[in-house]
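Friendly challenge for the regulars: who can give me the structure tokens for this chain first? No prize, just bragging rights.
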Amino acid sequence: MARVVLEQVTKVFEGGVVAAKDISFVAEEGEFVVLVGPSGCGKSTVLRMIAGLETVTEGRIFIGERMVNEVAPKDRDIAMVFQNYALYPHLSVYENMAFGLQMRRFRKTEIESRVNEAAEILELRDFLGRKPKALSGGQRQRVALGRAIVRHPQVFLFDEPLSNLDAKLRVQMRTELAKLHQRLGATMIYVTHDQVEAMTMGNRIVVLRDGIVQQIDTPLNLYNQPANRFVAGFIGSPAMNFFVCDIEKDTIRICDRNIPLPSELRQRLAGKHQVILGIRPEHFFVASEAASSAVRIEPQIEVVEPMGSEIYLHFNLNGLAGVARLPAETVAHPGKPFGLAFDLARCHFFDTETERAL
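First reply, four minutes later:
Bragging rights claimed.
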């Protein structure tokens, strides 16, 4: 195991395209760190710089105590698992897992020991003689993981390894990867655009946008204390609802109603004449069941989306789209108004210019 340190790492491609700018974070020994963000935000570029597959324009990368900016990928003592499994179709599972060790001239007994150990961990013992074409997508991904495990690297790097799997397999493989991390206690850095993967797997999450770090924190802190509107909207499913609200004296104007601000909010929003109010779908409730202090709205329901254990109500409120997540037994009809309520204490507030959390 080794810690990975990035110090103000920047990557500029030909033509002046900045893929990553001043990226700084630390993956401690044995930590599972997830890089998450929309497509094109620079997360895979950052991972490839750690692996040595992309050169660093500025900044420094350390693996353990060694700066690796000029170290060849094969000498960085890392193992990388890619989006495509990159298995040799003509080799068996055993041969695919052993290939890297054979290239490094390990003894046959050592190779056999390491492959069998990885196969036991990944439940592949019964498939060692099969070719990749005889395996399911989840099994092929486990073989790719096994090929990395036998290396006994200091750091594991994952570049969207589950994106080619169907929804059920993705959930299964998320669990297997989490168990694998607990078992190996290895340092892992994982790239994904799926915030659900990030929230369920990472000890800490690095949120990226346009090549810039937006926030680094634990999953729960990202959810409860987002640093800005982007993080608030990106973390959580369905996404947070946002409404622009005017502040007049000690009240906030929501849906043509002036709602008194509690004293704590008056202090937080002091000096602001307009703010962005954010409310998560799960923090709405049915107005008829709300406390007297709750803020009530009556939007027009556009789509009712039953999810089994819950229901999503997609609504229109004064021309603004929103979604509420309510209990499955809630009765609502498209095209009809519906009474919703929420508590101001559960809301988030953002500056209208900087979009930073207030």
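The chain has a mean pLDDT of 93. The longest strand covers residues 17-27. Your move, everyone else.
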